């Protein structure tokens, strides 16, 4: 798992070399996430409209630049083929199943004809059972990955269910997958089509058109479906077809290109030309378009004949009936390294500005603190009897850093929960609790699952834990549109700007500041705490200048680092407010 990027151009002529460049740039934008191999798939025939046309699969262990050099040596880059419509997919992989090898890299394929190809983020937890069944059916596996079972499974369902659409085949496939995934599919059986879906792993779609969108909301179409395969792994009938998925929505609305279809396709714009960018990270899309849709869990997005439609099988009261087109506030220069040697160094030096951005418009001249994201819920929050802070890693340490001052200012018990432990214990939650879920990305798997507290029962139903019990949920994130942002009642956006470095820096300090401002908001009507509050507010306003003074010590810190970096162990000690700093420092040094 690591980074997904896919690009589909519809009636927008592109040389194959241009398409490859777009895919490679998308991978380069996500290099900060860490990875050990990279790969992509593009069409390999001048006429890519016929079923079964050749697809080139290019994968290499190492950096994206290694893949880039490999492509330069092949015929793929040298010819001048132009495609009016084309689908390409790409991926950077960090090995979870199988060692870093070319064959284990993504995209993974269903057979040697590259009939189905997929790129995947996440982990399929039941892949061994599915793989064992498919091997009994005669399917051979060339990689050690969990991802390969996905394309082998869709191939198996395709062979048993002729006539199903690409989207239907993907819907049928994901019904039998357990775990977390974000997937983008390409197939030479369905030229010019792209299907993407997610569950527990982020995925967004960027839209670029020659004209303005006619609406900012895509309707969600719900399908009636039954599993293609039995749920009994030991039963020989497992994975035998029971019923082809039938759409629950009939329409005579014409699909782009003038063809009628009984599958839901919604024309969001009146222009034929369109480009779509599917990515696991907004940084890969921002240079192409700022109009994006964030997919929800179990959404299946289908791009066909230039039209995008979003489908679901599961229907629930809390599932929005539309997906909003949102505008990214991210700027390309924000994710460029500039004159710094690393992103982490750059973001350390951005902290004076990020702190100002976190406070901007929230700490007023008279010392009043206003957090717009929670103001409608403030009376309910003030009636609570316990604050629960759930997080992982650096976000957990930011919560730990604030526990003391939150208890002091709110006079409420503050409970810290490591998200993974919270899940294992099924912690009791009460109606008068307020639960914070803290995550820079808003997609941290354990923190997100703690929000939902996913209970996987025999029926595979998913129940949310905190909301039904009446507790109020608050998200503290740095990413607008993230899952935690969307699924909590309210929240605080820390406004630290994009954090590319793996080790958190400016997001960590902005999370602390956001929690301190929350505590100040909770105590604004307490006369006995007025002096203490004023001292804290004055200290916060001085913070950017104090950070600049610390950053002037860069040369001294470097001298110390050169002296001790070869030591086998380091002991970092502190207590009180410094305890969290010790833990965070140790985490970064490790």
Automatic annotation (TrEMBL):
Designated name of the protein: glutamine--fructose-6-phosphate transaminase (isomerizing)
Swiss-Prot/TrEMBL GO biological process terms: fructose 6-phosphate metabolic process; protein N-linked glycosylation; UDP-N-acetylglucosamine metabolic process
Keyword Repeat attached: yes
Location of the Glutamine amidotransferase type-2 domain: 2-306
Catalytic activity annotation: D-fructose 6-phosphate + L-glutamine = D-glucosamine 6-phosphate + L-glutamate
Domain of life from the UniProt record: Eukaryota
Domain (SIS): residue spans on this chain: 377-528
Annotated SUPFAM superfamilies: N-terminal nucleophile aminohydrolases (Ntn hydrolases), SIS domain
PANTHER family from the UniProt entry: GLUCOSAMINE--FRUCTOSE-6-PHOSPHATE AMINOTRANSFERASE, ISOMERIZING, GLUTAMINE--FRUCTOSE-6-PHOSPHATE TRANSAMINASE (ISOMERIZING)
PROSITE patterns: GATASE_TYPE_2, SIS
């Amino acid at each position: 798992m690591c980074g997904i990027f896919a690009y589909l151009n519809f009636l927008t002529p592109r040389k194959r070399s241009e398409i490859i460049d777009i895919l490679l740039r998308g991978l380069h934008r996500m290099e900060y996430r860490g990875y050990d191999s990279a790969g992509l798939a593009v069409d390999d025939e001048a006429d890519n409209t016929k079923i079964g046309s050749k697809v080139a699969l290019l994968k290499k262990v190492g950096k994206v630049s290694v893949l880039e050099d490999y492509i330069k040596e092949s015929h793929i880059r040298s010819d001048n083929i132009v495609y009016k419509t084309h689908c390409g997919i790409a991926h950077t992989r960090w090995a979870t199943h199988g060692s870093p090898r070319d064959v284990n890299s993504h995209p993974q394929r269903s057979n040697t004809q590259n009939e189905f190809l997929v790129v995947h983020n996440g982990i399929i937890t039941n892949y061994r059972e599915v793989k064992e069944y498919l091997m009994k059916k005669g399917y051979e596996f060339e990689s050690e990955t969990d991802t390969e079972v996905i394309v082998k499974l869709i191939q198996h369902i395709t062979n048993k269910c002729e006539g199903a659409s690409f989207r239907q085949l993907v819907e049928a496939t994901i019904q039998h997958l357990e775990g977390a995934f974000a997937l983008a599919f390409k197939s030479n059986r369905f030229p010019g089509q792209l299907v993407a879906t997610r569950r527990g792993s982020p995925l967004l779609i960027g839209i670029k058109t020659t004209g303005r969108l006619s609406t900012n909301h895509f309707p969600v179409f719900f399908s009636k479906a039954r599993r293609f395969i039995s749920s009994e792994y030991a039963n020989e009938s497992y994975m035998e077809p029971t019923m082809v998925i039938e759409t629950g929505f009939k329409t005579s609305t014409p699909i782009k290109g003038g063809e009628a279809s009984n599958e839901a396709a919604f024309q969001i714009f009146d222009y034929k030309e369109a480009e779509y960018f599917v990515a696991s990270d907004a940084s890969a899309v921002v240079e192409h378009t700022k109009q994006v849709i964030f997919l929800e869990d179990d959404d299946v997005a289908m791009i066909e004949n230039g039209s995008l439609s979003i489908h679901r099988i599961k229907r629930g009261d809390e599932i929005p009936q539309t997906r909003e087109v949102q505008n990214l506030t991210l700027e390309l220069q924000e994710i460029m390294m500039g004159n710094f040697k690393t992103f982490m160094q750059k973001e350390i030096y951005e902290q004076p500005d990020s702190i100002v951005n976190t406070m901007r418009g929230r700490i007023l001249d008279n010392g009043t603190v206003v957090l717009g994201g929670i103001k409608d819920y403030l009376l309910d929050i003030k009636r609570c009897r316990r604050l629960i802070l759930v997080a992982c890693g650096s976000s957990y340490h930011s919560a730990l850093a604030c526990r003391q001052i939150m208890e002091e200012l709110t006079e409420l018990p503050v409970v810290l929960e490591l998200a993974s432990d919270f899940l294992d214990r099924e912690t009791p939650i009460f109606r008068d609790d307020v639960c914070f879920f803290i995550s820079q990305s808003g997609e941290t798997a354990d923190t997100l699952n703690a929000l939902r507290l996913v209970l996987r029962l025999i029926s595979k139903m998913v129940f949310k834990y905190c909301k039904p019990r009446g507790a109020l949920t608050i998200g503290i994130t740095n990413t607008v549109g993230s899952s935690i942002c969307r699924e909590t009642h309210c929240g605080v956006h820390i406004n630290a700007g994009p954090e590319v470095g793996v080790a958190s820096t400016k997001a960590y300090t902005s999370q602390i500041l956001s929690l301190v401002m929350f505590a100040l908001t909770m105590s604004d009507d307490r006369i006995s705490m007025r002096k203490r509050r004023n001292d804290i507010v004055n200290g916060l306003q001085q913070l950017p200048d104090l950070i600049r003074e610390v950053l002037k010590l860069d040369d001294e810190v470097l001298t110390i680092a050169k002296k001790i970096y070869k030591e086998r162990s380091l002991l970092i000690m502190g207590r009180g407010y410094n305890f969290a700093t010790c833990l965070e420092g140790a985490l970064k040094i490790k």
